[in-house]
Design brief:
The complex is a heterodimer of chains A (110) and B (153).
Chain A: H1 2-9, H2 13-21, E1 27-28, H3 29-34, H4 40-52, E2 56-61, E3 64-69, H5 71-98
Antiparallel strand pairs in A: 1-3, 2-3
Helix pairs in contact in A: 2-4
Chain B: H1 2-7, E1 10-16, H2 20-28, H3 31-34, E2 49-52, E3 59-63, E4 69-79, E5 83-88, E6 98-107, E7 110-118, H4 127-130, H5 136-150
Antiparallel strand pairs in B: 1-7, 2-3, 3-4, 4-5, 5-6, 6-7
Classes of the chains: A alpha+beta (110), B alpha+beta (153).
């Protein structure tokens, strides 16, 4: 489940801060590190975790790598909410259909 | 921003073999019979019941088996048997409210019930801290989705 990886990846506050900084568009590691109280290698490590979780993608431009929010990872999150409502609506359907016109024939189990 | 909001509407529907009147009744009056309260109770109480004050401005709230009341949202459209809408903020502040719109449309000899869930951008980045006690996984995912809603703005 990709969304479970995403939840775990964003459980770390610094990693969440890195992810939030990518909202405005692609940024390099140096750019990201300059605004955070953590070292460049630490930011690289956080980016690797975000990338493995499908939340961030990496693109090489010349000698520098740029990171951005990954749309595919977000599709997984949409799927999570769709899954929640699918389950809820399936339960709703069962409840709505269980007593519709069936009351007379319903055997009493007791 | 409104474009992003549109893209982030989560829409799901189900076809139910009953009349819209009955579907509307079960969705509201009998929500406790079907809603997955386990894991989604703000009191972490699987015995909680869900109460609908069926009118515009009425509240939808959870009542725990111990009698505690926790508001999930406020009804903003109440048009039985075709449509209802509510703000949606179970376990969090009203300022982060999303919106749920439920449509009941006749289809064949049944009813199509559609849930449209919007307002992801209002959840906010410090959302997790305000979710104390509510289901952790749901909270974190909601937060990620909210972050994504702000992306590119």
């Amino acid at each position: 489940m990709a969304y479970a990886d995403a939840i775990q990846a964003l459980g770390d506050p610094t990693r969440r801060a890195v992810f939030e900084r990518l909202r405005g568009g692609p940024r390099s590691v140096g750019d990201l590190a300059s605004g955070l109280p953590v070292s460049r290698p630490a930011v690289s490590q956080h980016l690797r975790v975000l990338k493995n979780a499908g939340l961030v993608s990496e693109r090489r431009e010349g000698t520098r790598n740029f990171y951005s929010v990954d749309g595919d990872g977000l599709a997984e999150l949409r799927a999570y909410f769709e899954g929640f409502w699918d389950e809820a609506l399936a339960a709703f359907k069962a409840a709505a259909e269980s007593d519709e016109g069936g009351e007379e024939d319903e055997p009493d189990d007791r | 921003m409104s474009q992003m909001t549109g893209e982030l509407a989560v829409r799901r529907s189900v076809l139910v073999r009953c009349a819209p009147e009955h579907a509307f009744h079960v969705y509201t009056e009998r929500m406790s019979d079907w809603y997955p309260i386990e894991g989604h109770s703000i009191f972490d109480d699987p015995e909680s019941t869900i109460v609908w004050e069926g009118r515009v401005g009425g509240q939808v709230y959870e009542r725990s088996s111990g009698g505690e009341k926790g508001v999930w949202g406020t009804i903003i459209a109440w048009e039985p048997p075709r449509e209802l809408a509510m703000t949606w903020h179970p376990g969090r502040g009203e300022e982060t409210a999303q919106e749920l719109r439920i449509l009941f449309t006749p289809e064949g000899d049944g009813t199509r019930v559609e849930v449209v869930h919007t307002g992801w951008e209002r959840v906010g980045p410090d959302f997790r801290e305000r979710m104390a006690g509510y289901e952790r996984g749901w909270g974190a995912v909601l937060e990620i989705f909210a972050l994504a809603a702000g992306q590119g703005s």
